């Protein structure tokens, strides 16, 4: 039997400062948007650019790290999985939102060493920070 795979890898820049909140049970969750851009020359030789926006959700310790050390414009490697939620509004119209649940992050800005608050160890830009726990949180526990 073949395994399934739900994996997303992005390198981009934050479109806003991360927003850290805590669930009622005290679990950290951070959300932010991330832009990835691609550029090309069209058939007339003109430069073209397209930016894609991604909704990022981060849980637990990695959420706290993102909220503390990332800001609007930060360049980040992001790895995670896709999660799509759906809901109906008061008019019974169905809405969808696709998010990337990030579980690995590398800060790519070159601003020297950054203290990551991990027991005195120093995290250098370009070093990976991983979420070690799977998020098992109910929808009614979410602060957003």
Attribute tags:
144 residues, mainly beta, OB fold (Dihydrolipoamide Acetyltransferase, E2P), 5-stranded mixed barrel, two-stranded antiparallel ribbon, 1 helix, 9 strands, 7% helix, 53% strand
What would you say this structure looks like, in words?
- By secondary structure, the protein is mainly beta.
- It has one domain: OB fold (Dihydrolipoamide Acetyltransferase, E2P), CATH 2.40.50.
- The protein has a 5-stranded mixed beta barrel with strand order 1-3-4-6-5.
- About 10% of the residues have low confidence.
Low-pLDDT stretches: 112-125
Number of strands: 9
Q: Please, how many helices?
A: 1
Number of domains: 1
Give the name of the CATH superfamily. Answer: Nucleic acid-binding proteins
H/E element sequence: EEEEHEEEEE
Mean pLDDT: 83
- Helix content range: under 10%
Shape summary: globular
Strand order of the largest sheet: 1-3-4-6-5
> What's the architecture in CATH terms?
Beta Barrel
Indicate the proportion of strand residues: over 45%
């Amino acid at each position: 039997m073949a395994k399934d795979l739900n994996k997303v890898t992005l390198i981009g820049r934050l479109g806003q400062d991360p927003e850290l909140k805590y669930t009622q049970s005290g679990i950290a969750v951070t959300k932010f948007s991330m832009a990835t851009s691609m550029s090309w020359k069209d058939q007339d030789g003109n430069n073209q650019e397209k930016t894609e926006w991604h909704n990022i959700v981060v849980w637990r310790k990695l959420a706290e790290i993102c909220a503390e050390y990332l800001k609007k414009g930060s360049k980040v490697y992001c790895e995670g999985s896709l999660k799509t939620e759906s809901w109906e509004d008061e008019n019974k119209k169905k809405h969808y939102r696709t998010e990337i649940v990030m579980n690995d992050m590398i800060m790519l800005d070159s601003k020297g060493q950054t203290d990551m608050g991990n027991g005195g160890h120093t995290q250098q830009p370009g070093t990976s920070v991983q979420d070690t726990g799977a998020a098992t949180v109910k929808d009614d526990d979410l602060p957003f």
